[in-house]
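Need a sequence for this fold. Nothing fancy.
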C-alpha cells in the first residue's frame, strides 16, 4: 500500500490568495494578514468570505499582534474572541501559539486557546521555533492536544532546520504531525519532505503583483502601490513536485 499523499498547506494573506492557492492544488489554507510582519489574525469579513468561497479546509491564524509570543490579558481576550468568531463562521481549524518569558510553551494560555477551539483542529504555529528547547516544547504541544506543529526546526528556513525536523518527527512517533515550513519552494520541497519525514508541508507561494494604477505619488515613502499575493502557478509547481 502506498503512503498517504503529502499535504500541501498554503499560507494566504488574503481571500484572493486563498482562492489562488485552491486553484493551484493546495490541500489546505492558512489565512492571515500582515505577511511582512509574520502574520496576524485577518478580519472577520475576510474569514467569512473565505469560508463561503473555499472548498478546501480553512485554518485561521490567531495572533493578536506582531513581535514576540508573550501575551498579556488584553491580547488573550482578543485571541479568544477571534477563535469564537472562527467557530461561528465554520472554520476547520485555528493556528495558535504562545510562550512564557523564559522560552517555554505558555501552557495555561494555550490550554485556554485550545479549549476555545472546541471541535476545530489546532495547529501550533512557529512560536514553537522561538522556544528554548524544541524537544521539550514538542512534548508540551502534544500534551495540549494540538493536531500539528508548524516548524522550521528552529532555523530561519525548513531547509536549514531539516535535521532537527527529522529528529522531531522521530520523537513525535505519530503522536502529532510535524509540518515543515519557511523558505519552501518547488526546488527544495521534495528534498525537505524526504529528509525530514514530514508528511505536511507549508509554503506561501507568493509573488509580487504590480499595481494597475497609472498615477502614483512618489512622495508617499513606504506606500508602494504593489502588493504580494499567492501565485497559483507556483502552488501548482509545489504540488506537482511534491507528488512526484
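Here you go.
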Amino acid at each position: 500500500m502506498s503512503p498517504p499523499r503529502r499535504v500541501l498547506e498554503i499560507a494566504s494573506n488574503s481571500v484572493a490568495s486563498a482562492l489562488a492557492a485552491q486553484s493551484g492544488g493546495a490541500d489546505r489554507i492558512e489565512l492571515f494578514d500582515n505577511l511582512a510582519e509574520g502574520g496576524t489574525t485577518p478580519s472577520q469579513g475576510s474569514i467569512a468570505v473565505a469560508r463561503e468561497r473555499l472548498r478546501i479546509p480553512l485554518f485561521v491564524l490567531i495572533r493578536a499582534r506582531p513581535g514576540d509570543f508573550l501575551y498579556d490579558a488584553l491580547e488573550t481576550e482578543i485571541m479568544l474572541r477571534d477563535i469564537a468568531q472562527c467557530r461561528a463562521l465554520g472554520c476547520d481549524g485555528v493556528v495558535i501559539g504562545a510562550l512564557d518569558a523564559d522560552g517555554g510553551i505558555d501552557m495555561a494560555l494555550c490550554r485556554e486557546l485550545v479549549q476555545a477551539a472546541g471541535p476545530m483542529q489546532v495547529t501550533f504555529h512557529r512560536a514553537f521555533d522561538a522556544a528554548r528547547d524544541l524537544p521539550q516544547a514538542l512534548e508540551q504541544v502534544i500534551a495540549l492536544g494540538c493536531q500539528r506543529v508548524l516548524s522550521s526546526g528552529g532555523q530561519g528556513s525548513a531547509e536549514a532546520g531539516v535535521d532537527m525536523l527529522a529528529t522531531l518527527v522521530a520523537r513525535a512517533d505519530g503522536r502529532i504531525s510535524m509540518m515543515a515550513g519557511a523558505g519552501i519552494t518547488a526546488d527544495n520541497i521534495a528534498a525537505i519532505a524526504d529528509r525530514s519525514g514530514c508528511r505536511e508541508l507549508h509554503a506561501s507561494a507568493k509573488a509580487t503583483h504590480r499595481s494597475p494604477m497609472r498615477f502614483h505619488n512618489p512622495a508617499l515613502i513606504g506606500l508602494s502601490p504593489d502588493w504580494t499575493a499567492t501565485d497559483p502557478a507556483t502552488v501548482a509547481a509545489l504540488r506537482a513536485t511534491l507528488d512526484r
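For context: The two ends are 17 Å apart (CA to CA).
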